[in-house]
Amino acid sequence: MTEFRGRGDSSEVFPLSFKEYLSAFDKGKEDVFNDYLLYGGLPYTLTLATHEEKAAYLSSLFTEIYFKDIEERYSIEKEYVLEALVDSIYSSVGSLSNIKRLADSINSSLSLKAGSQVSNNTIASYLSYAEDAFLLSAARRYDVRGKKYFESQKKYYATDLGLRNARLNFRQIEQPHLMENAIYIYLKQKGFLVDVEVIEKSRVNENGKSERVKYEIDFAVNKGMYQYYIQSAYSLESDEKKRKELYPFSITGNLFKKIVVTRHELMPHYDENGIFHIGIEDFLLGDYLSG
Known about the structure:
- A hairpin with a 2-residue loop joins strand 5 and strand 6.
- This protein has one domain.
- Helices cover 40% and strands 23% of the residues.
- The protein is of the alpha/beta class.
- 30% of the residues are buried.
- Helix 4 crosses helix 5 and helix 4 crosses helix 6.
């Protein structure tokens, strides 16, 4: 169980998909989806009956397997920094971050003074260790107009929601963030390359001055000839929220299929602008992405 990295050829094995998870239950998909957001897709959780049993199992994986394996494999001396780093990222899944910002956050949260502070290089190394152990996964930020990656900025996600929630003692259960993370996991399970798309556009501000504004699409995904833009939007109830989530699609300058995934959508449909709207459960259960 502790060999996260093979000594030869290796394949990446993901937690259960929502479709696989749902097949183990004889109840409605919405109730099961709430459980999936809470406990993730590690198969053994399906054998446990109570929240306390599931929480204890998921929490034990960190102390008995994940952290111990990383610490021993890389001879880590500052295990408390590794733990604080994972906690920090789990607390802000789906947020753009960089090495310096993470280092500053860790030094502040641990009250480390000059001379004992964690360096950017240490944070970069610990991040790579956590990714190799499949605790974290990163989506790089891509500039569509400049056709280049922002190497310094990435979005980090948990590879399993149950692990993330247990590590945070089930205190930060914000469905919009968990939903976005669930979409990311699904896209990786499907074998897509997943980036964060950034588009810069000029506009005139309220003072009549021109300014450059950056617009973001949560996921720009591709696999071979198949390419999609996907926004995760918990709700599109207000006009302002619709504009914020849908406007970036209109300025991409390409013909990728555009999808917006919401928490509750009565029926999958295309709007007048050719954007496909679908609820999260149907998206994860259906076969809406080729490739």
